[in-house]
Amino acid sequence: MQEQENQQAEKVEIKEAAPEVQPDGVVQGETVQTSAPEAPQAAPAQDTAEQVIAKLEAKVQELQDSFMRAKAEGENIRRRAQEDISKAHKFAIEGFAEAMVPVKDSLEMALKIDTPSIEALKEGVEMTLKQLSAAFEKNRLNEVSPVQGDKLDPMKHQAISMVPAEQEANTVVTVLQKGYTIADRLLRPALVTVAQGK
């Protein structure tokens, strides 16, 4: 019996604790707002499909313009490089030609002398040879002239024949014709005879 009274008291307390909702939406003891919560500030209206398409088309046009400009610039660079290469080929020997002109002048002056003496001719040829050697040196045209006993270098020498000699095999015996390199590149190998193996 006591238990039943306790349970009824608890129910009453629970009923009193729970607010009563009236038909007009007002809870007794509390004010309840039945309207929807305030919406956040309205977001800007989304772009329509036409606006999105227009923006994308503008971006595509901008990218096409950039591409065409870059392509044209690349073509200009390529054309300028080809012109530079063409000029380099055309005028590659300009420096060498400038150095050779005085040599030609010296030879022409030697031929103008009516009655040259042997000594004068020899002196003129020696001076001309000095000019020619200076022109070669200035343009990095160097002689390949091995001396007797040098080891045969197939990268710079061309053996014409093998001859018996009192020296180590495959060494230079005589130089028949000098060779030349230009900027460390072989222009013409030296023609040599080499010693036979004993």
Structural notes for this entry:
Helix content is 49%, strand content 16%. The chain is α+β, with helices and mostly antiparallel strands and 198 residues long. A 3-stranded antiparallel beta sheet has the order 1-4-5. It has a 3-stranded mixed beta sheet with strand order 2-6-3, with no helix packed on it. Strand 4 (179-182) and strand 5 form a beta hairpin.
Secondary structure elements and pairings:
Blueprint: H1 2-17, H2 49-90, H3 94-112, H4 118-138, E1 141-144, E2 157-163, E3 172-177, E4 179-182, E5 185-188, E6 190-195
Parallel strand pairs: 2-6
Antiparallel strand pairs: 1-4, 3-6, 4-5
Structure, briefly:
The protein is α+β, with helices and mostly antiparallel strands and 198 residues long.
Instruction: Compute the CA-based radius of gyration.
Output: 52 Å
Q: Specify the helix fraction band.
A: 40-55%
* Separate helix tally: 4
**Beta strands, count:** 6
The computed structural class is alpha+beta
Mean pLDDT: 81
Query: What amount of the residues lies in strands?
Result: 15-25%
Sequence of strands across the biggest β-sheet: 1-4-5
Let me know the largest β-sheet: 3 strands, antiparallel
Indicate the overall shape. elongated
What pattern of helices and strands is seen along the backbone?
HHHHEEEEEE
Unreliable stretches covering 5 or more consecutive residues:
12-18, 30-37
Distance N terminus to C terminus?
A: 141 Å
